[in-house]
Hints:
By secondary structure, the protein is of the alpha+beta class. The protein has a single domain, classed as Rossmann fold (3-Layer(aba) Sandwich). 40% of the residues lie in helices and 15% in strands. The strands form two sheets. It has a two-stranded parallel sheet with strand order 1-2. Strands 3-4 form a two-stranded antiparallel ribbon. It starts with 6 loop residues before the first helix and ends with a strand.
Amino acid sequence: GESSPDIAKISLLLASVGLLELVNTLPCGLESILGENGVNFSGGEKQRLAIVRALYRDPALLIMDEATSALDPGSEVHINRLLLGLREQSMTILLISHNDRIASMADQLLVVEDGQIRPVCQ
């Protein structure tokens, strides 16, 4: 990690995935320890936190494999809005998903079938 993380940026990212309120309720807020000896997050909360970590360094390319698979419908809406916003900012996003709602947001859709990658006409 960084010795001086950008707290404002982290807070903005947490809000964008719907985790800021939860983090603010933790005993030590952003300084809380997660995991075995600390706070336990649900699978969906861990997934959203992983997205925050991936976005913190402003990647030019974001690869997400089943990034919404453990999310409830409300959390999925947060992530979908976030992805649409990132796309508008010209970030390249590669989404690997079985979720039709995610696929419907794609500029280009490819399908892996019988070991081959083929484009899908939209």
